[in-house]
Design goal:
The complex is a heterodimer of chains A (421) and B (1164). Chain A contains 15 helices and 15 strands. With 421 residues, chain A is an alpha/beta fold. In chain A, helix 2 runs parallel beside helix 3 and helix 7 crosses helix 9. In chain B, strand 1 and strand 2 form a beta hairpin. The chains are: A alpha/beta (421), B mainly alpha (1164).
Chain lengths: 421, 1164
């Protein structure tokens, strides 16, 4: 009987995305999160006395150049060397582009697989064969697994591969293959990487994405870590998810229905945050708060969303047992009365709603709105203009969203009496 | 939608009030609530009815949250109605009249899709918002688009909103801003990126540092090796130089040693050890001899003491018997004393028994022991009996006392008055009191009638009305206000004309006067001829010439004519004078042409003024006629009312006074009716009271006044109630007394039962103690005590018996033991000789034991001496053996002299010691090399060249050390540099910060864009709205404005100011006044007019909703208030308007308009 650890997508020193450092944010609690998660992984390997560790690609971000990161990795590998734990690694798409991978001299307990052809490493003492092939370049579109050798029926076989398998949303289709092709190889366990969400694709044979070690943005929610595999008598006996993350990401959706006041909605938000915080088992929590539903207090939120976001941040300091970082507060409430009802009436508000509706489809109007933004787009950094969280104000989708938000802001503030605050 | 009814069931200060708003079509409802009446709560209630009670509300101070209710009925414009109630809550707040739940959206259709905020903003207005709207117009410089949009949306903050959007956006970003959030974020991002680049350790940098370290390390290694080799060489040379003399000395010693090599070398302490061994042998032998002598002596002593006698073996038995002997002797002495005490106790027992039961023998006394066991029980029963007797007596006493009380109560019952029912009287009194101080009210009504009558009479007199007019004021055909106004207008016009004419006339007179002065002045200065003067002079001259010519040509006598024309004198003389005069005038005219012209001008003006004066006089006459005509018409108008009408100017005041009088007259009628009502009511109450009192007391007579009658009735009622209470009290006491008698009986029976039970127990406990059955309790108790004492004496006597028997038994045992011992010792005893024999044998034993102790000590000493003798023998053997060993060590037998070859042995030792010393020095100075290595190292060494080589090596070594230090420094700095490159990743910290900055930047950019887009959208929509709605809104609002400003403005128009459309009012004369140039009050009215026009427009396109107005007319004067109400009533034709006010003048105005424009007034 022996055990081994399977991890992937470490992305060492890759920064956490989307965490605005507001005054009460728990900055220290999440500093160097990917490093600490990796340290946890190494400690887990030592404490569980595993036979070896397999890493299925993407140790570093492709464009990351700081050699200190590589040294940190070597240092951690040194800890495993002292504990007598060998490490088997295939390069992923990020590693292929990384200068660190090419230049790093790891201790002798670390073995990298070739990027040119599949290789097999045998752990004689355990009768284990590990097959793997790394990425030679960032974009590998060939089915690498197809060339892996078939199992010989004598040893326990592990396939180590960085792949999108038959396609996973949000992940580039690299080294595509299929569970059927993998199954044909006759291996006992396929240790995959690349997909950041944990997934047990199959149990016959075992095909596992362990997910990444540490969530890095609001789309990577829930526990993150590695997979501890127990092998006995030439067969997998137990596959266990073991979280090693330092910061947990979560999205809390709060329904602000009916006539609930803003105070009541904030109470619900607080309860929701506290509930998420209690689930982190002492880790820090980064949480996105989304307030939804047709609500009487829609106008309050729409008229000054920034103010209410601050209120939510202030709440976070006093709830829950963990350090809580409010990543973003999104007010997606709806007005309790249908917009089309407002538009029916031939008064100023009705015509405002109708005209804004018409403007959204009028190229000249949209051009005028773009012009109203001035040169802010030119000043914006590249990261904000493309990518998953892009906010290019000239992009049709963003502009359409802005028009809707602006409309709600106007309707809410116009409905307010007295000077606006 | 129309609100038909608002039920303030449980809301704010209300508890069940209802506002019926169903009248009108849809109608203007004025809800009047003075201060504290809850006007604001009613307003909030109305809103809560339609849109729910807010989560946080100030209207729950009387009713708790869950009890709050507002009800209502609504009617849709298509005729459907809904009745419902509203409770507080987040969901399911609508209830049907039967309490069942209604769908939360049941009202949506009635509300026409308007949200709560929109309803509040657009379908309602209060004074503050009106003022705010007016201020916005001012701040917006009358911007037409903004004004229309504000009216059309109900927003009172439009301008502020626009500027806020711009300011908020500008706070976030400006193209060249520095302290804006986005700009700062961008700057920070640049800095962080630079810092990250700076902090990133590249592979090349790392490799360079590692190479530098490697090179430095290699250099250090090489130089170290070099230095070590040099040092080693130097060390070797110095060593060889150091050991050469020692090696030579060692060689010499080895040569000396060879000469004595065969000598046996003994240890240095050998002679001393030999001497010690010989002495030890000698001493041991002497000790052995001494010990043998002592042993012999001791054996002799033991033999002398002989064997142990048999008595010693029985020493325990002898000692025990000797102890028993003492006890035996004392018991024999005690026995007679005990026998005496036994007899005493038996005698006492017998005596005591004789007291209690003389019939019993002493031996039968034990049968009584059972009563001693029952002693406590008997004693307890004895005490219990007294308590039971007391309880029985107490119950009997209570019964007697209650029976007596019952008798007393029976007597009282016969004296109580009979029962009467006060309820009918109480009801009549309550009814009478419900009217309050009715007589006071009546007195007030009387006073009011008097006062009003007096005021009315005075008013009639003041107004000059005929005296009997008091009751017919309504019928008087007093000229209408319109008629008066018409006359006022005509009179005023006439007055204006008269005034104008008069002032014109004054002006003309003044000018004429001024002209005359001027003409006079011209004349005064120097009579200025005029053209007329010239003409006159010339006419005279011509006339004179004509006369002259007639005289000459026709020889006519012209003397008379000449005199008439020229005065006295001859014509021929006069003519030249006229010629001269004409010439003079002509000359003067020429000379004073200016004065002449001026004079001519003045004169001409005076003629003109004269004509004007005539016109003015004609006008004055005409006006006088008109005035007369007006006066005549005026009088005709007033003829039916007054013979002498008031002046036109005073008529309005007269009419106002008359209206006041009319009001008073109506008030008087009401007061009289009230008086009659009160009289009838009081009479009815007095009659009612009288009937009720008589029914209770037929002889009673009530006072006539209501208050006194009520008081008398109340007194009677209280008396009857007092009687009722007394009767009730008596009944209660009677039943209590009966209960007490029953309780006493019960207690007696219970006590007797307990005594019976006691008797049974007592008999059972004491039966057999005393002869007979009924011995008193005290006797029984005494008998028990006596029997107990007797039995105790008998017990003691029995104790003495036992002790005497024990003494006899012990004496026999002692004797048997003594004789058994004597038998064992083979001694014989005479009879009764046990005492003395035991004494004797004990003395003998004591002597034998002393001898036995001495023998035991002697034997112990003998054993010890034998052991010591053995040890001494061993010591002799050991000393012998030591000497044998020493001889073997010296390799000589007993016959060889130890001192032989002593010199050879000294030499041998000396050489060896020296060699050892030299070798130690060699090893110490040989840097760890062996002597053989040192010897081989020294072979061929040349002392002379050694120093030269040493000098060379020293110089080389200094140089190499210097290079080594430099190399080590280089290595240390390379290591430090590498160390700097290791550790936590600063670059990754910066990367995290960059992401944080991007996150903030993203939010700020989105917020900025949202604000800018909102601002742009709003600006464009305001303009769109203006373009589409300008014409109809201005037309409609203009009409309202005209009416509200009482015609001061004729309407509203769009104007242009610096290329932007603005709002302007049009005066009746066509003059335009920009909206922002209007006074504050007028702007407020403009706002209201615009809003009402927008409401009308909205009603035309969607479900009309009620327009809720909160005291907007508060700052309007009376005329404008009336005008405002007229306008609202007008708008109320298209949707219901509910106007809340707490101002009496608004209510009064509304009431005065009630009939002509259909205003419905409600009071909270």
């Amino acid at each position: 009987m022996f055990r081994f650890l399977h991890a992937a997508d470490v992305h060492l020193d890759s920064p956490l995305v989307g965490l605005d450092r507001y005054e009460s944010a728990p900055i220290e609690a999440v500093r160097g999160a990917t490093r600490r998660a990796f340290e946890h992984l190494v400690s887990l390997a030592i404490n569980e006395d595993v036979a070896f560790l397999v890493l299925a690609g993407d140790l570093y971000d492709g464009d990351w150049k700081d050699y200190r990161t590589g040294l940190f990795f070597v240092d951690q590998m040194g800890r495993l060397r002292e504990a007598g734990i060998p490490v088997f690694i295939v390069a992923g798409n990020h590693d292929a582009a990384s200068q660190l991978t090419k230049n790093l001299r790891a201790p002798d307990n670390v073995q990298f697989f070739s990027a040119k052809k599949p290789e097999t490493r045998v752990v004689e003492a355990l009768d284990v064969a590990i097959h793997g092939q790394g990425y030679a370049s960032r974009e590998v579109t060939a089915d690498l697994a197809a060339s892996y050798p078939a199992a010989d029926g004598r040893l326990f076989h592990i396939g180590l591969l960085h792949t999108s398998l038959d396609g996973r949303p949000g992940h580039a289709p690299y080294a595509p293959t299929s569970p059927q092709i993998l199954a044909q190889k006759g291996y006992h366990y396929w240790a995959l990487g690349h997909v950041h969400k944990r997934e047990v694709v199959s149990r016959e044979p075992w095909i596992v994405f362990p997910g990444n070690l540490q969530g890095r943005h609001a789309r990577e929610t829930g526990p993150k870590g590695c997979t501890l595999v127990t092998v006995d008598n030439g067969a997998v006996r137990h596959v266990e998810e073991r979280p090693v993350d330092v910061l947990r990401w979560a999205v809390a959706r709060i329904d602000a229905d009916g006539r609930a006041s803003t105070g009541e909605v904030l109470d619900r938000v607080a309860r929701s945050i506290a509930s998420e915080a209690d689930r982190t088992e002492g880790r820090a929590l980064a949480i996105r708060v989304e307030v939804v539903g047709a609500a009487a207090c829609h106008g309050d939120f729409a008229s000054n969303p920034e103010h209410w976001a601050q209120e939510v941040r202030a709440l976070a300091t006093s709830v829950g047992s963990a350090d809580v970082w409010i990543e973003k507060v999104r007010f997606a409430t709806e007005r309790p009365v249908d917009l089309s009802q407002l538009a029916k009436r031939d008064d100023a508000i009705g015509s405002l709603v109708r005209d804004i509706e018409a403007a959204a489809g009028d190229p000249a109007e949209l051009e005028a709105l773009r012009a109203s933004l001035g040169d802010v787009r030119a000043a914006m950094p590249r990261e904000l203009l493309d990518g998953d969280d892009a906010v290019d104000p000239h992009a049709p989708k963003t502009l359409a969203d802005l028009v809707v938000e602006a409309r709600e802001l106007l309707l809410a503030r116009l409905a307010r009496q007295g000077p606006t605050s | 939608m129309k609100i038909l009814e608002l039920q303030l069931t449980a809301f704010g200060p209300f508890g069940g009030q209802t506002l019926d708003l169903s009248a009108g079509n849809p109608g203007l409802h004025v809800v009047f609530g003075p201060n504290e009446a809850g006007k604001s709560s009613a307003l909030r209630g109305l809103h809560a009815l339609l849109y729910g009670i807010p989560g946080q509300t100030n209207d729950a101070f009387l009713h708790p949250y869950d009890a709050m209710r507002i009800g209502g009925r609504l009617r849709h414009s298509r005729g459907t109605e809904i009745a419902f109630a509203r409770r507080k809550g987040n969901k399911n707040t609508l209830l049907a009249p039967d309490g069942t739940r209604l769908d939360d959206h049941a009202l949506d259709r009635f509300l026409g899709g308007e949200s709560a905020e929109k309803f509040q903003a657009f379908w309602g207005i209060d004074h503050a918002r009106l003022v705010q709207g007016g201020r916005e117009i001012l701040e917006g410089q009358g911007d037409l688009g903004e004004s229309l949009f504000a009216a059309g949306s109900g927003a009172s903050n439009l301008r502020k909103l626009r500027s806020t959007l711009e300011v908020e956006a500008a706070e976030l970003y400006a193209p060249r801003g520095q302290r804006r959030a986005v700009n700062q974020g961008l700057d920070k991002l640049r800095e962080l990126r630079a810092a990250q680049r700076e902090a990133t350790v590249s592979v090349d940098e790392w490799t360079r540092c590692q190479h530098a370290l490697r090179d430095a390390t290699e250099a250090v290694t090489n130089l170290s090796t070099q230095a070590q080799e040099l040092a080693r060489e130097r060390s070797r040379l110095e060593r060889v130089k150091r050991i050469l003399p020692l090696l030579a000395e060692r060689k010499g010693l080895h040569e000396r040693l060879a000469l004595v090599a065969d000598a046996v070398l003994l240890s240095e302490d050998f002679p001393q050890r030999r001497h010690q061994a010989e002495t030890a042998l000698r001493t041991a032998r002497q000790a052995l001899e001494r010990r043998e002598e002592e042993l012999r002596e001791q054996k002799a002593i033991v033999d002398l003491l002989g064997p142990t006698p048999p008595l010693v073996a029985e020493s325990d038995a002898v000692n025990q018997l000797h102890i028993d002997l003492g006890r035996h002797r004392k018991a024999l002495l005690d026995r007679p004393k005990l026998a005496g005490q036994r007899s005493e106790q038996r005698a006492l027992a017998k005596r005591l028994l004789a007291e209690a039961r003389p019939d019993l023998e002493i031996d039968a006394a034990m049968t009584l022991r059972v009563f001693v066991g029952r002693r406590d029980r008997i004693r307890k029963l004895g005490t219990e009996r007294a308590r039971l007797d007391e309880r029985l007596a107490s119950a009997a006493r209570d019964g007697d006392k209650a029976s007596e009380q019952e008798e007393v109560l029976k007597r009282e019952a016969s004296e109580l008055p009979s029962a009467r029912d006060p309820e009918p009287l109480a009801e009549v009194i309550v009814e009478a009191q419900r009217g309050g101080d009715a007589e006071g009210e009546r007195e007030k009504a009387v006073q009011l009638v008097k006062r009003l009558t007096a005021q009315l009479d005075a008013g009639i007199e003041r107004l000059g009305l005929p005296a009997p007019a008091a009751d017919g004021l309504d019928d008087l055909r007093v000229p209408s206000a319109a008629a008066i106004a018409r006359f006022e207008s005509r009179n005023k016009e006439l007055d204006d004309e008269v005034r104008t004419t008069k002032s014109e006339r004054q002006r003309l007179d003044k000018e004429i006067r001024q002209l005359s002065v001027k003409i006079e002045t011209l004349h005064t200065k120097r009579a200025v001829p005029t053209e007329a003067d010239l003409s006159a002079a010339r006419t005279r001259r011509d006339a004179a010439f004509e006369l002259l010519r007639e005289h000459w040509e026709k020889s006519l006598d012209v003397t008379e004519k000449a005199r008439e024309l020229l005065g006295q004198g001859k014509l021929i003389e006069l003519y030249p004078r006229t010629v001269a005069e004409a010439d003079e005038v002509a000359d003067r005219l020429r000379a004073d042409a200016e004065h002449v012209a001026m004079l001519a001008h003045h004169l001409e003006d005076r003629d003109r003024l004269g004509t004007e004066v005539e016109d003015a006089e004609a006008s004055a006459r005409r006006q006088k006629e008109q005035a007369a005509e007006i006066g005549s018409q005026w009088r005709t108008l007033w003829q039916p009312v007054l013979n002498t009408p008031p002046s036109i100017d005073d008529a309005r005041a007269w009419r106002t006074d008359f209206e006041a009088l009319l009001e008073r007259s109506q008030a008087l009628v009401q007061a009289r009716e009230e008086l009659l009502r009160l009289d009838a009511w009081i009479e009815k109450q007095v009659e009612g009271l009288s009937a009720a009192v008589t029914a209770l007391e037929p002889d009673a007579r009530l006072p006539a006044r209501l208050a006194a009658a009520v008081a008398a009735g109340e007194k009677l009622r209280q008396r009857i109630e007092k009687e009722q209470r007394a009767r009730s009290e008596h009944g209660r006491r009677t039943s209590e007394t009966r209960q007490a008698i029953l309780d006493a009986e019960k207690a007696k029976r219970a006590a007797q039962a307990e005594i019976d039970e006691w008797q049974r127990k007592w008999t059972e406990a004491t039966r057999g103690l005393l002869p007979g059955d009924a011995a008193p309790a005290d006797d029984v108790l005494a008998a028990v005590d006596t029997v107990e004492k007797a039995l105790r004496a008998l017990d003691e006597a029995a104790g003495y018996d036992a002790r005497i028997a024990g003494i006899d038994r012990d004496a026999e045992q002692f004797r048997v033991s003594a004789r058994a011992l004597a038998l064992r010792l083979n001694e014989t005893l005479g009879p009764e000789a046990e005492d003395h024999w035991v004494e004797d044998v004990h003395n003998r034993l004591t002597a034998s034991l002393q001898l036995e102790e001495r023998r035991r000590q002697a034997l112990s000493l003998l054993t010890r001496l034998r052991a010591e003798l053995n040890r001494d023998g061993e010591a002799v053997k050991k000393a012998d053996l030591a000497l044998v060993t020493l001889r073997e060590e010296a390799s000589c037998g007993y016959d060889i002299d130890f001192a032989r070859d002593e010199q050879r042995r000294i030499e041998l030792r000396t050489c060896r010691k020296e060699i050892e010393r030299i070798e130690r020095e060699l090893i110490r100075g040989g840097d760890g090399a062996s002597i053989a290595e040192l010897e081989s190292e020294a072979v061929g060494a040349d002392r002379d060249t050694m120093d030269i080589r040493l000098g060379e090596i020293g110089t080389l070594l200094v140089e190499v050390e210097k290079q080594l230090t430099a190399a080590r420094d280089a290595r240390a700095s390379a290591q430090a540099e590498l160390g700097m490159l290791q550790g936590p990743s600063v670059a990754s910290d910066k990367a995290e910060e960059i992401q944080a900055t991007l996150a903030k930047l993203r939010e700020d950019v989105v917020t900025y864009a949202r604000l800018r887009v909102a601002s742009a959208l709003l600006a464009r929509r305001i303009d769109d709205y203006r373009r589409r709605n300008q014409a109809p809104l201005l037309l409609r609002a203009g009409a309202h404005f005209r009416e509200m400003t009482l015609g001061s403005f004729d309407g509203l128009e769009a104007d242009v100011d610096e290329d932007r459309p603005i709002l302007a009012g049009i005066r009746p004369d066509g003059k335009r006044v920009p909206a922002h140039g209007m006074s504050e009050g007028t702007r407020d009215q403009l706002c209201l007019a615009l809003r009402l026009a927008a409401v009308e427009a909205s009603c035309a396109t969607g479900e009309p909703l009620p327009f809720i107005v909160d005291d907007v007319l508060v700052q309007f004067d009376d005329k404008r208030t009336a005008a405002g109400l007229r306008v609202l009533a007008n708008v109320a034709r298209c949707t219901q308007i509910v106007l809340f006010t707490h101002h009496g003048h608004v209510r009064a105005s509304a009431e005065s308009l009630a009939e002509c424009v259909g205003v419905i007034v409600h009071e909270l």
